[in-house]
Amino acid sequence: MTTPRIEFEADVFSPSGLTLLVDGAAQSHVDPLDATRLFFEYVRRIAHVIDGVAQPGGPIRALHLGGGALTLPRYVTATRPGSSQVVVDHDAELVDTVLARLPLPRGADIEIVIADARDAVVSLASVPPFDLVVVDLYTRLEAPAFVDDPGFMGGCLGLLAPGGVVVVNVADAAGLARLGAQARALARADPGAELLVAGDPSVLAGAEEGNAVLVAAPRGLPAGLEERILAGGPFPGAVLTGHRLDAAIWGAC
Q1: What's residue 138's pLDDT?
Q2: pTM for the whole thing?
């Protein structure tokens, strides 16, 4: 197996931002001087979901399956002081390289576990539940097949505290095949869970490739989440729920 090339590229839009590249593909962006400055559109949308979980601004327990440059764990630390977080990533070399260049904030309660996400979901079933589970699992541009499995998605849902949410980054081609598969996996794992999808309108229409943010909440979505996502940008933005979402994910079966 070829060892991936891991490097950082300076941000041309700010003096302090860095983009993590793996084999030339952009994986994450971090501004070490301002963890709330989020560059990628899908990350900004996930941040709106994080802001709406539990008590606004209060500490939460968060699990991140897939670490990248630890952009979202840094965001949670900055916006919700006192939060407890676990990050699971299978690539020890990537984690070590990221931490050498971008150390974690001082005092951050972030535990990093080197493991396969599928195994970690099983082992974490015995720890206190999480308010937030973020699934962002990509090797270069490919997601593992198990993210389409209702068993895996059900395991993620089973880790949630009351009122908690699972948030999935779905990088998809035109046609929404991957989004449909992962949304159906969540719906089959828990038919009673409320689902929401956010993204660029052209992506959610299936016309263009891009990233969609898929949210699942076993006990109901946080109040005002759709409005928060639409108002917070980036623009243009769209949100699918209810019948519109059903048509998108089941109509292509």
Answers
A1: 82
A2: 0.95
